[in-house]
Amino acid sequence: MTTVQEATSNPGAPGQLTGEKVLVLDFGSQYAQLIARRVREEHVYCEIVRHNLSAARIRELAPMGIILSGGPASVYEQTAPKCDPEIFRLGIPVLGICYGMQLACEALGGQVASTPAREYGRAHCRISDPDELLSGLPTEMEVWMSHGDQVSQVSDQFRPLAATATCPIAAVRHTKLPIFGLQFHPEVTHTPEGARILGNFLKRVCGCQGLWRMGDFARQAVERIREQVGPSRVICGLSGGVDSAVVAALIYQAIGPQLSCILVDNGLLRKDEAGAVIQEFTRHFKTDLHVVKAEDQFLQALKGKTEPQQKRQIIGHAFIDCFTAEAKKIQDARFLAQGTLYPDVIESGAAADGPAATIKLHHNVGGLPAELGFELIEPLRDLFKDEVRKLGEQLGLPEEIVWRHPFPGPGLAVRCLGEITKERLDRLREADAIVVHEIKAAGLYRETAQAFAVLLPVQSVGVMGDGRTYEDVVAVRCVNTDDFMTADWSRLPYDVLARISTRIINEVKGVNRVAYDISSKPPATIEWE
Ligand code: XMP
Predict the structure, then answer these.
(1) Of 319, 320, 333, 324, whose CA–CA distance to 265 is shortest?
(2) Who lines ligand 1 at CB under 6 A?
(3) Is the pLDDT of residue 79 over 70?
């Protein structure tokens, strides 16, 4: 996660063109990034900082508002993360959410106690005093609660604004200072009026006009990269996915020919993918591209391996070997650019030590060893996938790249269940190309988040002509999701499913059965391995 101290690697750090900025103080909430994103959706620039940033530093950064995030701790615990209490005296509007509200109320004379039963889920909230924060909302609304503690008593400097059946102080404001609190989470979609509440805070309370646009992010990112990189060379790994393409485009805009890209063709890409990436790349960037043809090396290393995590590890190591060998050939490279996005970053929850983040192991097979000595540039670290797409459009990348469905780092290896051989991969590639083609032809590609084929390590009996067959089964997976953390299977029209099935069975040699995966995530995952 980006902190102000680390702000040199964060293109969105202070100094916005519009001057409107809000800080989110992170107390270890799983929703801190979501809060930041919701603020950006209101066109106000937002940045996540450490919970214990000093009031003096915050004054220097001059935000128009401060949001205190939720967090897993209890404010009455000795080790609970606290903010500098002076922030409440800066005159800058503060909105405390869940733990953040408890912290603000406690700091200003209120009491926080654990609730008899942890409240998790939807609750019915009744507004008693809309004030500015809840202005224009229905008197009764649904909100999303997730807490074990709540404010049991406020000092007479506070005025309750809303309550639920079990939480008598569900929203509150200070009578003299611009300090507000919400026990529920306005940032999640389960609080339908949440965006309006955050909008009220930003516009009515903080006085923001909402002038920030994704174009500002791109300009700031470019400026910051220039500043950080100077005359040095930057290496960027290309995968064909939107994230690495957007990172490359940003860096290219910043430093043009000082960018070198490496594409490792591991033989696990989709049909014709490597060629398409090279073609797109050379059309848009006039810079140094290194293609490492490594299919044999990967397939050799994967021979006989069927266990998913082992496959991932082997691929991760082979990737590092190939990438490192190629990177060493590039003179004067000092920086490595990565397209890490927010969903790749898992909160450690160790709020007291600052918002350290770890990367999901299995989502980061390309994690390169520190010994390489590169300084990292991760300009997309705070963004969600759809924001990256908006940025890609801003940067003028073609629709084909911007809207390409995400593809896992270990590629088809985790969609080719069982042993990986060239023959099985080719079979899978053919089936997969049919799935994608038919989804596109039906105009459903943008509506669906991921659509692909999976080759199962199972044969089934069929009949073709007069003969009995005993051949492979292909599963089709197609999901809808915004954040890839939860997903639902796509309700594809029967005729599209029928075309996919008929074409795969007719056109892909060795397949006689197609099944459609109707599992949601959770409890299933999007990929089969
Ligand atoms: P799951 O299968 O965990 O996938 O529901 C969620 C999203 O992550 C992608 N994914 C991966 N991406 N390396 C990656 O770079 C991986 O090992 C990996 N596994 C899953 C998956 O395609 C989906 O978009």
Answers:
(1) 319
(2) 312, 362-363, 365, 406, 408-410, 450, 484, 521, 525-527
(3) yes
